[in-house]
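Pasting as-is:
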Amino acid sequence: MFERPRSGERALLVRIGLGAPPGEEELSEFEALARSAGAEVVGVVTGTRRAPDPRLYVGSGKAQEIRTRIEAEGADLAVFDHALSPSQERNLEALLRCRVLDRTGLILDIFAQRARSFEGQLQVELAQLKHLSTRLVRGWSHLERQKGGIGLRGPGETQLETDRRLLGKRIKTLNARLDKVITQRETTRRERRRAEIPTVALVGYTNAGKTTLFNRLTGAQAYAADQLFATLDPAVRRIELADARQALLADTVGFVRELPHELVAAFRSTLQEARQAALLLHVIDAADPNRGERIAQVNQVLADVGAAGLAQIEVYNKADLIGETPRVERDESGDVRRVWLSAQTGAGMPLLVAAIGDFLGPRIVRRRIVLSAGEGRARARFFEAGAVLSESIRADGGSELEVSMPARAFQLLCRTEGLESGLDAADRDIDRDIELDGAVRAAGLDTVVPGSGLDMKGPEPASLERPDAGHAVVHP
């Protein structure tokens, strides 16, 4: 048995295609992952097998080839683009006489380097320890030695058993800490729901431009770079929609093919932002020739975390790189399904903001309305619509209502109850917006009339009163 080297970044990459040669895109992504971890790639070994070898994964002949390349290139690390079993990893290390890292270990190493928040560091450490707990046997020769010394002879406890026990304790501690973090996050989410502020989550393949888009929409300064998993820690910021309305935008960790199950489990609280969002913005690299496969892989991860049934708008980022113009694409029912834009240049961003608002619901207005004692039917109509926020009785027997309802419904109710003549310029603007919305949809134009949300902390609502002349007027 040999002692594992504790350092070394010169890496030989190994990718074996099962049933077919490995594709160029898979190899390029694998190399990018290795470089993101800080490795110096000295060579790549490829091959094809019908099925993995149970002992070495690659077979004895290919393993000897890999050993020869390691010695020739002076590599001190062999990285396999596959999930290796603990026994396969140990057998390869014994044969190659260097450290062996599989795809899961490589991604975990990248995450460990990028985690900055307390929660992110806890999640990565938990995933690493769970991965390591199955790889203790025969990793170092000292793990099989018995403790010795005066007072410690006898059956005792092997070093391996001690390490397993310590790992178990640490994993239990990390789970307890993460449970507290999850409780805190859930408390925050309840406050958001109570304030009726919708959440929109950015999801997508790593390096699709999610963080750049997040910064462009929110004005944040989150770190963004042209590399895999440039950002790891989740961030939530407010975004401004039309009419001083707001929503919360959550930037989540990027996905990748064959994302390790340890990470999916450890990052459950982070991915919960995506599960409980009102809308998912699926960010896609429009310039990626394999974007169809990337979309399918992201949707598979979303299904794994229980977010497959949520509403989605596909955001085709980097449209400028392939000469596409910013635009909105709708389905047969008129709902927004795709938005083409460039987060780097800002082209098409107003279309995305409008599409978010359009999805979140109809435009909302708030008004204070003063009704006479004889206008009981209008009062009943507002209550039937569930629009009344508060009511006070006036000395003359009339009532003063504070209402909140969709702009279209408010205007129609005012018309049918004889309040139309009292609508001021603000409410007539609502009418023009509604007509414009219908005209735009009928013409199939790219412009989108903003959607809604209700900013309960926004400006005071206007007042709709009936003066003695019997005409309703609105005071801003």
